[in-house]
Amino acid sequence: DRVSTQSTGVISLFRLDMSLAVTVVEGKNLQAKDVNGKSDPYVRVHAFDKTFESKVVKKSLNPIWNQYFIVNVPDAKGIIQIELYDHDVVSSDESMGQCSINVAEYTDGKLVDKWVKVQPKKSEKVSGEVRLKIQYFKAGEHAVPQ
Question: Are 62 and 26 a contacting pair, CB within 8 Å?
């Protein structure tokens, strides 16, 4: 399953008792992948059995996405993978690296606002960080992006 949201969209997938609200806020100092010294970055969030995709921010190494996703958490020991890509019209999109979050670190219900360092997915050159807001909550409770 692939699910996209608009910049203000919220996707709710409540099938289980616990969910994780993840806001991909922004990136900073990302790797330039285009000949103009910039990139057209977007993120894919792989969360258990779902994939979410952000909007593309054109010609930026410091994109602001403010994309908010709510995902089911079938296993508090799971990992949520965030992959960064440079959107290309003519060729295939190029990896800009990845970062991940360990769901077990966020089960106390507190809103966490943190920067996560971008790591290589394979051997590509990467740089920068991604700012995430993460909150774990019970289905039926209300998580509000801050």
Answer: yes
Helices H, strands E: what count in the chain?
0, 10
Extended beta strands in 40-93, E state: 41-47, 50-53, 64-72, 79-86
Which residue reads 């993120």 in tokens?
A: 43
- State which H helix or E strand residue 129 sits in: strand 129-138
* b/e per residue 56-77 (b: at least 16 CB within 10 A): bbeeebebebbbbbbbbbeeee
Closest CA to 80 of 99, 108, 56: 99
Question: Does residue 139 contact residue 17 with C-beta atoms inside 8 Å?
Answer: yes
Q: 23, exposed or middle or buried, with CB in 10 Å at 0-12, 13-18, 19+?
A: buried
**pLDDT, tens digit (0-9, with 9 covering 90-100), for 100-135:** 999 989 888 899 999 999 999 888 889 999 999 999
pTM summary value: 0.82
